[in-house]
Amino acid sequence: MPVANGDEGARGERIRKEGAQGGGVRPHRRGGYMAPVGSPTLTVVVGHGGAAYSHACAKAARAASRCGGAAQRRLRLCSREGDEGCFVAGPSGCDGGPPLDSFKIFLDTWKYIWLEHDDVELLWIYMRLALDRCLSADCPLEVFTPSMPPTANPVEEDNARRMGKLTEDVKQLIYRKKGIEDQLQLIDHLRQLGAAYHFKEDIKDALWTIYDSMEEVSMLLKDNLHATALMFRLLREHGFAVSEGVFNRLIDEKGNLKASLRHQTEGLVSLYEASHLAKEGEHVLEEAINFTTKQLKSLMEGSLEPHLREHVTHALELPLNWRMPRLQTRWFIEACQREANINPVLLELAKLDFNRVQSIQQRELREVSSWWSNLGLAQRLPFSRDRLMESYFWTVGWAFEPQFARYREAQTKAICLITIIDDVYDVYGTMDELELFTDAVDRWDVNAMDKLPEYMKICFLALFNTTNDTAYNVTKEKGLDIIPHLKKAWADLCKASMVEARWYHQGYTPNLEEYWENALVSIAGPLALTLAYCTSDDVTREALDGFQSCPEIARWSSMIFRLCDDWGTSKDELRRGDVPKSIECHMHENGVSEDAAREHIRQLIRGNWRAINGDRSFTSCFEENLKMIAINIPRMAHCMYQYGDGYGKPDGVIEDRIRSLLIEPKLM
Questions:
Q1: Per the structure, how many domains does the chain have?
Q2: What CATH number did the domain enclosing 268 receive?
Q3: In a shared domain, residues 226 and 121
Q4: pLDDT tens readout for residues 563-606
Q5: Residue 76: domain span
Q6: Closest C-alpha among 421, 423, 467, 429 to residue 446
Q7: What is the per-residue DSSP string for 70-87?
Q8: Mind listing the pLDDT tens digit for each residue in 316-365?
Q9: Are 235 and 184 in contact (CB under 8 A)?
Q10: Domain match, 97 and 233 both
């Protein structure tokens, strides 16, 4: 429950007193457990062999020596005959290494782990995921990965050559003369297969051709519900000013869909997906959402063909416009393989590209993991959540394409720091300490650290140095100073967190509008878009001078982000005594039930999506990329909070999603 007035600082002091006394773990208000301060660190060392091998062994040996005495044991984890130097130091020992799926059984007793494996990329990432899940913050974690220079991979070289050939073949397909429906289907397949970014300009040319002859195209499509809905969706997704009036010829005199079209499953799915791109005031599309949802559920009760049933189930679970694009790509590739109804050139290109992008992202993940390990915050601040893998997963959802590598790196670091800072405000800091920390970030001055407690000093320095490093890289490459924008974004975030801390300590429940204005910032959506803006390859001095930290689309995007977060986490957080979320604020303000409040939140999510759909046009590549990220932020929120708190309490669903994108390749 909220701390009563006058109980200043009780929360932080109580937590630290319990930590100092030891006696096991204590409940973490965000799920899982926090380790008592001073818990032993679990060190995982992943070796590559070769020149880095001895260095890694020395590191592991030093770590193991700290375990000391009778507790030190050796356990071989060799993946090849004759490997040397692989060991685990800890109270348990055995003659041979356990299989990977048994690894978590030993986590309670192992303290230092040295691991060698042929496929170190996959194994290391899986181990990191398993550790995050199994440890659940029971003890700090250190991961050490000796660096190795990249080596030429003949398979990758062959795949790159094959991709080049397939890319040229697909370009020819795009420009080859064909029927309107075939052209639309080709573009949609490329989009859902995750390969459309290779053909951005070619696809725009094809869509411009269709858009410039809309009347003629509409006459050709006649009563083709599937093609009409697909055309509308693709044009609106790409920023074209297409009206819901294209559906008028498919509606009878009573305003309903023509009877002849009401049982066309493929057409109904297409209309359902298109209707989720409705703008405010588009009543035909709003009615289409209700009608198609009801009709598709009715069809599911009948005898649909298996592949149609799969597609209908998938659509009703979450519309395409709300889905994380990369997860949709994985699902669509596998669906196409089962159905064998797609051009094999497209499918081969998609699988090669999926594996190529995944390999790039695995390398990026190793690099940010090295940064996170060297930073040492997870060890120094054991009360906080360690969510590196999930943090990187967010960024893949926001911008997966290889050209956004710098943004993913900067944003992953930012999310890790946001999580730490959020736990400082929510879990550990006293009110006096939080006021000092908020002031230090607002001043952006290392001299302000003098008044901070030790745990806040390292937190502030990590934020200060990491942000300045990001800004330095932009200054070095472009001669632009982004520090003023980044420090304002961080200061705004901390001020919003401070407001929530005051509400908590005062036992205050804000009204919904008051909650929103603060929560739009505390959810960190504006910070994410500020980073995207400032680290973009296309940013210019003029664009930076005209920068708005929270344009309208950022507000709508952040609103959905916040509402999805509240939807998935409010029950647990209210039970743990956290600040009331939007659902509780609406219940308190209007005296309604939780079910009624949740329905209100559901309608707010839909309303903000309509606002986003009304602002999808762009005039430059720079603006297009920013709006793409702004749209992907709420998509990723749906992904993470669809079945609960997928970030604070990662479950099997989120682990499977991370594994499918970052660990398991798409087999050819």
A1: 3
A2: 1.50.10.130
A3: no
A4: 999 988 866 665 655 678 899 999 999 999 999 999 999 999 99
A5: 42-137
A6: 467
A7: GG-------SSTT--S--
A8: 999 999 999 999 999 999 999 988 789 999 999 999 999 999 999 999 99
A9: no
A10: no
